[in-house]
Amino acid sequence: MRNSFGIVLLISWIICSNTHASTPADTRADGRLLLKENWRIQPSTQVRADGKEISTTGFRTDNCYSATVPSTMLAALVDAQVFLDPYHGLNLRSLPGATNPIGSEDFMFRPMPPESPLRSSWWYRTEFGIPPEYHMSVALNSGNDATHVAVVEPQEATAA
């Protein structure tokens, strides 16, 4: 039997979510599980559920973008071809809110347009399974602003 865990990160600028319960995690030689793959992200402005509901096993993420961690939501949106690679040519200027005159140094003080998807916080979410003999600990090496982590209590898997 395996225990199922869900993890939801609410990061002030970045937030997350995944569709498949008990998604296989990358297991290192030292036995640690790396939860780098199989994340789903969505802007908090488009999520019509609260954190408790989002944290439930099997929460639907059909309208979310795929992501890996560590990553920003902008990097995930570039991977999903929502935005062009900002490091190529003048593509950075095509991002919402990049309307400052070229050469100006005050861009960071300009307000982000209200309609920009880069303005809101984002949900990052994943689900994963671990063997019952494992002990759970979560290590976060960084966060852009504020990070809230919810680790959902383990549930006994039922035999199919």
Helix and strand arrangement:
Layout: E1 3-11, E2 26-27, E3 33-34, E4 39-43, H1 51-54, E5 65-67, H2 73-79, E6 122-130, E7 147-156
Antiparallel strand pairs: 1-6, 1-7, 2-3, 4-6
How many beta strands in the DSSP annotation? Answer: 7
Helix percentage: under 10%
Structural class: mainly beta
Q: Describe the largest sheet.
A: 4 strands, antiparallel
**What would you report as the Rg, rounded to the nearest angstrom?**
18 Å
Features:
single chain; 160 residues; mainly beta; 4-stranded antiparallel beta sheet; two-stranded antiparallel ribbon; 2 helices; 7 strands; 7% helix; elongated; disordered N terminus
Question: How is this structure best described in words?
Answer:
- This protein is mainly beta.
- It is built from two helices and seven strands; from the N terminus they run ββββαβαββ.
- The strands form two sheets. It has a four-stranded antiparallel β-sheet, with no helix packed on it. A two-stranded antiparallel sheet has the order 2-3.
- The radius of gyration is 18 Å and the shape is elongated.
- The chain starts with a strand and ends with a strand.
- Mean pLDDT is 74; it is low at 1-23.
